[in-house]
Every structure is written in structure tokens, then in C-alpha cells.
Amino acid sequence: MKKFLLPVLLIISFNAMAQIKANDVNSFTLKNGMKFLVVEDNSIPNANMYLFFKVGSRNEHQGITGLSHFFEHMMFNGSKKYGPKMFDRTMEFNGGANNAYTTENVTVYTDWFPASALEVMFDLESDRIANLSIDPKMVESERGVVLSERSTGLENSPWRVLLEGLQATAFQEHPYHWPVIGYEDDMKNWTQADLEKYFRTYYAPNNCVVVISGAVKTQNVKALAEKYFASIPAQPEPEPVHIVEPEQKGERTITIQKDVATPYLAVGYHVPDAKSKDFYALVLLKEILSNGKSSRLHKALVEDKQLATMVSASYDESFDPTLFFVYAMSAKENGDSILEQEIYTEIEKIKTGGVGERELQKVKNQKLMEFYNQIETINGKSNNIGTYEVFFGDYKKMFDAPSEYNKVTADDIKRVANEYLKKRNRTVGILKTNVDN
Amino acid sequence: MKKISLIIFAVLCTGLSLVKAQYKLPAYEKFKLSNGLTVYLMEKHEVPVISLSAIFPAGAIYDGSKAGLASITANTLMTGSVNIPKAKLDEELDFMAANIDMFSSKEFSGLRSKFASKYKNRVLDIIKNILLNPAFDKSEFEKEKSRTLVNLEQAKESPRAVIASYFDKAVYGNHVYGNVVSGTTSSVKGISIDDVKRFYNENYYPEGSAIAVVGDFKTPEMKKMISELFSSWKKSTSKHTNAASNPISYPTEANVVLVNKDDARETTFYIGAPGINRNNPDYVAISVLNTYFGGRFTSLLNDELRVNSGLTYGARSVFSPLKNGGTFYISSFTANKTTAEALDLAIQVLQKFHAGGITEENLASAKNYIKGQFPPSYETAGQLANLLTQMYWYDFNESFINNFEKNVDELTVDKAKNIIHKYFPSDKLQFVLIGKADEINMIAEKFGKVKMMDIKNDIP
User: Fold this and answer.
1) pTM score, whole prediction
2) Which residues lie below 8 Å from residue B293, measured CB to CB, with a gap of 6+?
């Protein structure tokens, strides 16, 4: 962590420091196209390995929805050298733990281990990437596991139902239309051939970025990468996702019945992907709307008018144009329509009146603090470096982010609010008990 | 390269200790102010950030007849002080990107804060004002109360959000450890601003509290600041007794609490029994064995219920220790129609653990795992500040950290046998099942005396 030492300086000077820090990420690429990013950090005697595969539910089609996520599970179920169960058993015997996650865009595998077990991780990871075996028996028991994962998500949070419905309404053609977990009927129908094809196409070294942070030496990582990964052959580039969601030409709404104490509300606006010039302004707009108790929506709806018990906004990195969300839980039993109107009122205030300088500085300060939080742990470093490399095309952009945020002006915020947060561009989802009157 | 090839060798010959992490707690200073407030300071300069954690003897065990009082008192403290009204407080903290949260648990309440070190003067001053000069504004309290009431209703939509409270009631019965921290709809309705003031006056006092500050500062300067800010906090005049010191009457037979949820698609369940106190001398050994039984992915429980049978997305077991008592539980969830199968299997795994104990190889694996995963739990300033307040509360010191590996290593297969029999339950199990009652009530009867409830009602 020493390498990321950031003295207490004004935010303005942040950019200058950041330029030095990017150099602390060591990078190399194997001949088969597999890219490695390494951060040496001796703050604890541990290390991690994050493998980002550029495949997610956007690479699926109807009939195989949920397959990316199911594949994430199958990656733990046996390969040539380490048969069923042996990946986890070997990892845990060596003091390591792991997890993985799948989004619309990427599938990420995460290993956390004592630094002394680094070579074991290379052995385990290279074995499953080179030689995964897809055992039909394991496919069947794992199918039960993901069906349970889907069910427990729906059982414990109405948000899951609402956001799946909203997303399906906002995206009519693009694959962001279906949920990452998949349709239940597709989940019961994935075939062996689907899985094998998926593995060949997407689990290629040239479709993967590996990030390692912790008490390691780059030279050693490089030697291990050559030893374990260099012999895995590259594959042809996967077919690009060619569907572009047509422009939305009018407000859409979706209502879902579920017995709940008070209504749940979500609004999604179509916005561009992470490489857009408006990305940073949209992120700051999101913070102005909902980060902290003094944020526009929280202050107005939760504190002052007490129409909501919570309100939040989100806008995440993506490869394709995505949604800017506002979510709220109504404080009152039949409070959804007034809550919805008040959300628009607050958004309109920004569109016409803009934001204040202190308010803008506030969210810039929040971004800087967020950056500190991200680099406080070796896991935060790997996850963020990988995210920037994959979504922005270059890990160095992570270090430019604070200056990119600093460049955003009050006028930019007002402009993007007007450009994207408009009625014709939004989809509204409401989940409540009584939907019949 | 030599060292690494040795490790590969060790993987093949099981039973060796692979993980030599040698994690030691960084140096810190501990002192007491004249009013009895205990202070911990630890410098950590990697990022220009400070984390603060404070602990007060003001947990839900002091709620009395007003369940949720400790929790709403903690939340009300965040609604402004005499000299800083709430709106100003919120804006100022947001501007500095500083974060202050208050919360309550069974035994204590706490404050956690994280802020850029350049703002330390102002943020510490705000923290002092929140704690020592609360405004107890009636309208802010009423807002807090109505939000709490809606949140309580919303929690009833999620089995995961409420199951622990049902379970604690089942194990602790009428003892204060059974108190529901969040309160219930009917109890919170009965709480007034005067109750909150009284609770604050009785339960927030310096001689029972501690503050830990970890991060980017110089110790002498921070010592001076904390001393100046908090020495005006008056010692309490009344005598305090630990509300949890009364003996607990644990259940004498197997019981099943069946909580109906009309629209349930799955059954969420806990199976458990009394556990251990935090100061149990076998704490580390128990942690190692629980890792093997239900504390990691390849654990006996997860292996059977998830990997072998596909009945669930996850199954685990937890020891949840307090000062004077504790619980142990197995937790999982499964589709309505596989409820019986999953419950039977979980109990079988427990029985097998009792009968079979742990092998040399599996013990080595559990030890390596728990040691390997230990350092990342104490990596950040926030984690370390919380650790220091836990040390205060449960009366242990850095030897817990520094001797952790040694204590883990000392566990043998023979000792493990005794620990399993002594601390992992084998009978009088307590069950909580949240699911569709008319589909699972016949199953419930198999396991003990059934008490029927409904998730839409308050936790009794």
C-alpha cells in the first residue's frame, strides 16, 4: 500500500500525483494475448488474483439466457488436473478463498490468498482455463444451485423483481433486456453443447485481463505467467454484440403486483456507456442527486417531505449504452405517484437552475474519498485497476479519473441532465400491492 | 523459486502447516481520561484518512419494555446537536465527504466515522457535539420514528432480514439477549422523545465507553485533541449493572418456530442451540472447527447441501458470541418442496461431524485457511478501529492477534474431538423455519414442538 501513498494536498494537485502512481502498476502481455497487471504491495502478507473475462449476459441470446452466470459456477466444478471439488479444496488447503461474479458485461474470478501460495493459484487457474471438463452430473447439481440462487434473490428483495421488469421494458432489442441470472425456463434447458461452445469462445487467454496485487514480485509473477499460461492457445475474437438499442421515443411504464408494505419505485433513463465523453458528468449528476443526506433527492424526499424512506441513484460502467437509475421506497402506503412526481420536480430543478459551486465541489470531494477507499485494500486496487482496464480500455484511466471529475463544470451537469433525464427517454417501474385501481 | 516449489510439495504431502503469515497488530497507545473514557490511538499513514470507532454501554439489553429504544436513540443522536442543526450537519459532513454512523447492537451502541485527515479538527468536533450535546429535536425524532416504522414493515418482506430475531428469541427466551434490536411495530409506536432522552442519560457515560482512532495523524497531537474534546464529558452519578448478567434459561427440549409467509417460494431456516461466550478459552479452536463444519465453501455443510445435492445456493454455520452467552446456528434456504430433504441432510451432517470428528488432513486445511484469511480482516484503519473497541468491550488484548497463529496451530485431532462434543450441539435443537406454512407444517412437527407465527405480525 506504500506505493499508493497520497499526501494530504488540495484536490487540485491530485492529478499531478496520480501521474506518478500509474507507474506503480506493472503490465505485461503474453504472446497469446493474456494481459497481466501487477501491483506490489507489502502491507499485509497476502495477495489476490482477479481474472476479468469479457463475457456477460450481453453475449447471450434468448434460449441460453443466464449461461454466462451458470458458466461462472461451472468453472469451479473440475478440470484435467484438479477434478470435481479439487479447485476449492486445493485453494482452501493453501489458505486461499475465492469467489466470482457475473454482470451483463463481464465475468470476474477472484482469489484471495497468503502471498506464499501464489504459484498454487497459477496452477489452479491455468488448469481450469486450459482444460475445463464439463461433467454432465455436475451440470445437473449445479443447475439446482443457480435455481436456488435465483429463488433466494426473488424471495428476499422486491427490488430484484422490479428491476428485472424495468430493464426488460427499457431494452426491447439489446441483450440488456434479460436478467443476468437468466429466465427460469432457459435455466432448465442449457445443454452440454451450449456450455462447450461458450467455453471455447469466451474463455480464451486473449479475452482475459489478470490483475494481481499484494506481497508479490512482478518478476516472479511474470515467470509464473509464462510457465502456466503461455501454452494456452489464443482463440479468434468473439463476435461483437451488434445489436444497438433503438432510441426510446416516449415514456414507458411497468407495474408489478406484490404484497409489500409500501410501493417500490424505479426510473431508468437511457445513457451512454463508460467510454462516452459524458460519463464523468453523469456520474457527478448521480452523486448530486443521491450521495449523502444533503443530496438533492434524499434531502427533499426523505428529510423534508418524508415521502420516501430511501432514495438512491446509480450509473455503472458498461460496454454498451445503459441505464441511469433512480430508486425510491415510498414512506406511505399509496404514495407512489406523488413520490414519482417529486423525483421529477427535483430533477427539473437541476435542469433549469443548475447546481451550485459548493455542491459541485462537494461531490468532487466525495469522489476523492471514494478513491482513497478503493486503494485502501489490495482487493480494492485489483478490482478497480481491472475495471478501468476492461471498461475504459486502459488501467491508467483510473489515475486520471480524479482530474476528469475535476474538469466537470456546473454547466456540464446541467447539460447532461437536460440531454438524458427527459420524459421520452425514461422507463418507470412501480411495484405495489394494489395494482387494480 | 525454492520456497515456492517447497509449497507445491507440501500440497501433495498433506498435514503440513503452509501458511506462515506472521501478522502482528501494529503498535497503538491506550489511555484513560480522568472521567474514565478509554482511548486507543494507532497511527497508519498509507492513505490520508482517519477512521474512528466508539462504543457505549447502551445496547438493546437496556430497552426494558420498549423494544427498539436503544436503536432509535442512536439514530436520533445523528439528527443534530444543540449548536449544529440537522440540515447543516448533513451538508457539512457531505461536503467534507466525511461519514458518521451510529448503530445499536444487543449489548452496545456504537459510532463509526471515516474522514480525510485534513478535516480532523472539524469532524472530531462534530462527533463530540453529536455525543455530548444532542438536540433531541422532537420533529426530527418523529421523522426518525416514522421511517423506522416503515422499515420494520418492509423487513417483513425478507425472511433473511428477520430470521435472526426469531431465532434469538427461541434460544434466549425472556433473557435480555432475546431483545429485538430493531424493535417491533407496536413497541416503536410507544416510544417518545422523553424515553429517548432518558435512555441517553442513563446509558451513555464515559466510564463505560471507549473511542479508538486509527489512521493518518500524529499520536501526541491526537491525544491532545481527544483529551480536550472529551474530558468535559461528565462521569455518571448512578451505579450501573450489566442487564445481561442474569442467568439465561436455555430451552430444555427441541422446539420449532414456524413462521408463515404466504408468498414464500422457498423455506429459510436456522437450526441451532446455545453457543459460547466471547471470552471462552477455546474460542480460537472453536473457530477452526466451525470453519471446517460450516465456515467456508468446502465446509461439510456447504459440500452436502450445495455441492453434492444442489438443494441450496449456500449453507453455513455460525457461532455468535456475546459477553454472557451466545448462540450457534446452521443457516440455509431451499425450495418449498425440498424443505424436508434439506433439514434432514443438515442434521445428518451435524451427526456425522460428532461421530467422525476431523482428520489430520482436514484439520491442516482448516488451520491453513483460517490463518491465510486472517490478515485481510485487519487491513484497513476502520477494521483496526473496530478491533480496538472490541478489545475494550470483551476485555482482550493484542495477544489475540499476535498469538492467533500459535493458538490455531495448537489444536490437535484429539483436542478437536473434545471441542466438537463440548460446543457443537447434538440434541435439543431449536428450529426457525420461515416459509409457506401449509406446505411445510407436517415437516416441522417431526423436529420438535411447533409454535406457529406469521411474518406479517410483530416478532413476539
Assistant:
1) 0.92
2) B299, B300, B301, B317, B349, B350, B353, B424
